[in-house]
Specification:
The protein is α+β, with helices and mostly antiparallel strands. About 20% of the residues lie in helices and about 35% in strands. It binds (6S)-5,6,7,8-tetrahydrofolate. (6S)-5,6,7,8-tetrahydrofolate (THG) binds near residues 121, 194, 195 and 243.
């Protein structure tokens, strides 16, 4: 493949200098920003992530800030997850739906205070939808994208590394909670979260000028821990069943089809614009759903929809796939119709390099 031409539209991040110095080998584009996908190789990055600790430039997880008296009301309009019990210092994984119940995004929401929220978005222009909602409903709230860029520290040694830079208090942060920690006399929100199943943190770096100092401090402090620059790893995130918006689901899917029903409490999510539509579809349950799929043999990169077939009948599709060294099979994420979604169902997948045997699994690998 050719290279990407740089321009203003394709935003660099506060950590791009560090990412380049670490020898990034490939990028993807996410929220019109550069997201590294490979440092040494996808397989080497995978093993290292599972055994050591990595620093990830996930600035592409842009924040949409809601600030003002109507911030909490606006937040509830966006999601079928009931937010009434959410406290400042908590993170919630929140499906965002339109008026038809279709998925617009699957961000992590942070409640900073009753009237201040960050929505840490996946790859879709959620800022426009939220601004329009605020304007259309005449809400008393400011909506914009602040200069905040998440830096993830992921892997089994993440606690050890973070303690050295931010102090022992870091160990007390619970999963999907955040606290405020000092660096060079400035305070930063740090959450125990991240787009891997290996454990770790996300530092919400406020101020572009603070990016490289924090990056460098972590790299310096972690030398004996074999710290390395990394990025969300395709193989590991499929093993863990972490969904990728735009790949594994789109606006055509409800949260229930995405297996995100556990993050919906539609009955009590009063104000959610997709509530009526979701109550209707939730009554009978979805007729297709996300499933773990294993595939036999070798595969090319999954850069398009791969139909899942039961004989000559199309019963679903695969949208993410990669060979897993630890499980010695191709691990994949697919959407499968109800008639064929039971554990152990054997199907055929039409990859871009021909047919392969595939099997449906009830659970993901991690
Ligand atoms: N962190 C932050 N922002 C993000 C992501 C992130 N924005 C983009 C993207 N990732 C959003 N998608 C996800 C998908 C999965 C998870 C988080 C964001 C996730 N899921 C856990 C799981 O499925 O095991 C647990 C969720 C829970 O139990 O509440 O972490 O990674 N800041």
């Amino acid at each position: 493949m050719a290279v990407i031409s740089p321009s203003r539209r394709l935003r660099r991040t506060p950590f791009s200098d560090g990412v380049e110095a670490a020898g990034v080998k490939a990028y993807t584009v996410y929220n019109r920003m550069l997201l590294p996908t490979v440092f040494r190789s996808v397989v080497e990055d995978y093993h290292h992530l599972k055994h050591a600790v990595q620093i990830w430039d996930v600035s592409v997880e842009r924040q949409v800030e809601l600030r003002g008296p109507d911030a909490a009301r606006l937040m509830q309009m966006l999601t079928p997850r009931d937010l009434r019990g959410m406290l400042p210092g908590q993170c919630y994984y929140v499906p965002i739906v339109d008026e038809t119940g279709g998925m617009l995004n699957d961000p992590v929401a942070l409640k900073l205070s009753e009237d201040r929220w960050w929505v840490s978005i996946a790859d879709s222009d959620l800022l426009f939808w939220i601004k329009a909602m605020a304007y259309g409903y005449r809400l008393d709230v400011l909506v914009d994208e602040p200069d905040v860029s998440p830096l993830a520290v992921q892997g089994p040694l993440a606690d050890d590394l973070m303690e050295r830079v931010f102090g022992g208090g870091i160990r007390a942060i619970k999963f999907f909670r955040f606290g405020w920690f000092d660096f060079n006399g400035q305070s930063f929100a740090i959450a125990r979260s991240g787009y891997s199943k290996q454990g770790g943190f996300e530092i919400y770096v406020e101020g572009t000028q603070n990016g490289m100092p924090i990056w460098n401090a972590l790299m310096e402090a972690g030398k004996d821990l074999d710290v390395y620059a990394g990025c969300p790893n395709l193989i590991e995130r499929i093993e863990g069943g972490l969904l990728s918006y735009g790949n594994d689901m789109t606006r055509d899917n409800t949260p229930h089809e995405c297996g995100l029903g556990r993050f919906c409490s539609t009955q009590t999510a009063i104000g959610c614009v997709g509530r009526d539509a979701l109550l209707r579809v939730a009554k009978d349950g979805p007729t297709q759903q996300i499933r773990a799929i294993s595939i036999e043999g070798d595969i090319p990169p999954c850069d398009r929809i791969w139909p899942l077939m039961a004989g000559t009948k199309r019963v679903g599709q695969v949208t993410s796939a990669a060979r897993s060294p630890d499980y010695d099979t191709v691990v994949a994420i697919g959407m499968v119709k109800i008639t064929h979604w039971d554990d152990g169902t054997e199907l055929t997948v039409e990859t871009s390099d021909g047919l392969r045997a595939a099997k449906v699994h009830e659970n993901f690998w991690i």
